[in-house]
Design brief:
Pfam families: Amidohydro_2. Belongs to the metallo-dependent hydrolases superfamily. The chain is built from 14 helices and 8 strands. By secondary structure, the protein is an alpha/beta fold. The protein has a single domain, classed as Alpha-Beta Barrel (TIM Barrel). The chain has an 8-stranded parallel beta sheet with strand order 1-2-3-4-5-6-7-8. Helix 5 links the parallel strand 2 and strand 3. Helix 4 packs across helix 13 and helix 11 packs across helix 13. The longest helix has 15 residues. The relative contact order is 0.15. The protein binds zinc ion. Zinc ion (ZN) binds next to loops.
């Protein structure tokens, strides 16, 4: 975790948060890192500020067919794409991406052994997002707690389509896990693949009842550039979620939300509005590797953000938050914050 802690230190050194930033963990005193306690010269602070950390806030890895002997796929969820860790590391190296949040993939469903093995093998490179198991028997709560406390996962994913038929994320099991996430200082990442309109009421209810749980909406909450009044309405409701200080947005999997081909420039207006409402310090880029590879390529996905941000006239500082500072700050270890 040395490198990640170093990244956190760089963030802490690199100046005050922008105006709209809400330092979520700031109520709690942080560990007095040696460097934070030291008096810092302006030159050192400038050097740290110049070091731009690139953190991909959303990607997946799964076992190669060879590794699947040790780490089997969930039955019926065999991958059709390569997504093993060595391939990811090669892509990150080519693209100049320093670190990443690995989101537990559906291919291994609730069996986290492969992702855990990758996290343990590359502790300075990756942090993990586990998948919440919303089974009716409530066993998912203990699994979640163990994944955080024993295996070091820093984020938990809520996939509403894994809830038992007819059940919502606001059921007893969902609320217990959401509340626990707040207690553990682990953000809840929510995937609204079938439309934010289906889930926004649940999200608002959870945020209202548990204001100390951080929420991250995956992939712009799957809001495409609005064409109809209905789409405009739901996008406005997404912007309005910024009223919850605990709410963050992933500007990720751009190929899933754009109506255009790479470099997805139709997203510039959305990005501009998201940043205006939330502040760049509540927005983070993610690739959705390996799905992004056949779409536009990994390196190209990262480069697209520069072009989109440029079209949206974002400041270099905003871009720096989106490309790494937001996520670095958010995913720092609860034990180190
Ligand atoms: Zn994904």
């Amino acid at each position: 975790m040395v490198a990640l802690l170093r990244l956190n230190t760089l963030v802490s050194l690199s100046g005050l948060c922008p105006t709209r930033h809400y330092c979520y963990y700031s109520r709690k005193p942080r560990l007095p890192f040696r460097i934070r306690m030291a008096s810092i010269t302006e030159t050192e602070a400038e050097t740290a500020s110049a070091s731009k950390v690139i953190l991909d806030s959303h990607l997946h890895v799964w076992a190669s067919p060879h590794e699947a002997a040790t780490f089997p796929y969930h039955p019926g969820q065999e991958p059709t794409l390569a997504g093993h860790a060595d391939f990811l590391l090669q892509c990150m190296e080519e693209a100049g991406v320093d670190s990443a949040l690995i989101v537990q993939p559906i291919n291994h469903k609730f069996d986290h052994n492969y992702v855990t093995s990758v996290l343990k093998k590359y502790p300075t490179k990756f942090v993990g997002c586990c998948l919440a198991n919303p089974a009716d028997d409530g066993s998912g709560l203990k699994q979640f707690e163990d994944l955080v406390l024993k295996d070091g996962y820093r984020v938990v994913r809520f996939n509403p389509y894994l809830w038992p038929s007819g059940k919502k994320m606001t059921n007893e099991v969902g609320k217990a896990m959401f509340q626990k996430a707040g207690e553990l200082k682990v953000p809840v990442s929510i995937m609204c693949m079938k439309g934010l309109d289906l889930h926004i009421s649940e999200i608002e209810q959870l945020c209202t009842e548990f204001p100390s749980t951080i929420v991250i909406l995956d992939h712009l909450a799957f809001c495409k550039p609005p064409l109809t009044d209905q789409e405009q309405l739901i996008f406005s409701r997404l912007l309005n979620l910024s009223r919850f200080p605990q709410m963050y947005v992933k500007f990720s999997a751009l190929f899933r939300v754009s109506r255009e081909k790479h470099p997805y420039l139709d997203l510039s207006t959305l990005l501009s509005q998201i940043v205006s409402s939330f502040g760049a310090n509540r927005v983070m880029w993610g690739s959705d590797f390996p799905f992004v590879v056949p779409e536009c390529g990994y390196k190209e996905a990262k480069e697209a953000v520069n072009l989109i941000a440029n079209k949206a006239s974002l400041s270099p500082s905003d871009l720096e938050w989106i490309m790494g500072k937001t996520a670095t700050q958010l995913f720092q270890s609860h034990s180190a914050s």
